[in-house]
Amino acid sequence: MVMQVATVAGVLLVGVAVIGLIFVLGMRTKSPLVLHPLVRLQRAILNPRQMRSAGAPGAYASVIRHRGRVSGRPYETPVGVVVADDGFVIALPYCSRANWAQNVLASGSATIVSEGHTYQVDHPEIVPIESVEARFTAGDQRSFRWFAVDQALRVRRIEPGQAATG
Q1: Distance of alpha carbon 52 from alpha carbon 58, whole angstroms
Q2: Where are the alpha helices (DSSP H) in the chain?
Q3: pTM of this structure
Q4: Which CATH architecture has domain 31-157?
Q5: Is residue 123 within 8 Å of 108, Cβ to Cβ?
Q6: Which candidate, 45, 160, 158, 60, places its Cα nearest to that of 111?
Q7: Rounded distance, CA 99 to CA 79, Å?
Q8: Which end of the chain is more exposed for a tag (fewer CB within 10 A), N or C?
Q9: How far apart are CA 132 and CA 153, in angstroms?
């Protein structure tokens, strides 16, 4: 009996290790076989839970408000932002193919809610993660290397009274 339990536990452990390896390799190579199910999981389960606190003071995530580039529909997406000199930087673990990133790039502007404050932003641009990596925590930087995150979205904060351009 003990031997059977040990065998089952061993098989489960190996299975979890294999799934973890597939996940890491899939993220590193940006494989659609890994990214598409992960994006669906994130949209259906993770994002709605994250949105409960996103943008509030002390919350892990901020909110980026954007409009659909085809539908024109307003969307809110939880994202991890860090403050830059004149705006914000958002790491792109799924590359710039994420719908929210494409929407922001297409419109040229968005709204970010972070730490309880709302900011209008414009001039979105994709930048190499290396150029902004120092702004992220050491833990984030390790994750970026582990999952081969190589892009970030930089946006410029629009000061109150300043007209949006672009």
Answers
A1: 13
A2: 2-29, 32-41, 47-51, 99-107, 138-146
A3: 0.81
A4: Roll (2.30)
A5: yes
A6: 158
A7: 12
A8: N
A9: 10
Give me 90's structure tokens.
């958002």
- Within 8 A by CB and 6+ apart from 57, the residues are 115, 116
Reported as a single tens digit per residue, the pLDDT across 133-142 is 999 999 999 9
Any idea which residue has 């990133």 for tokens? 101
Q: How many CB atoms lie within 10 A of CB 85?
A: 9
Q: Which residues contact 80 (CB under 8 A, 6 or more apart)?
A: 60, 61, 62, 90, 91, 140
Residue % of the chain over a pLDDT of 70: 96
CA distance readout (Å), 96 to 8, 34, 129, 146: 41, 16, 12, 18
* % of the chain beyond a pLDDT of 90: 61
Local structure of 112: helix, strand or coil = strand
pLDDT for position 26: 75
Q: Is residue 166 exposed (0-12), middle (13-18) or buried (19+ Cβ within 10 Å)?
A: exposed
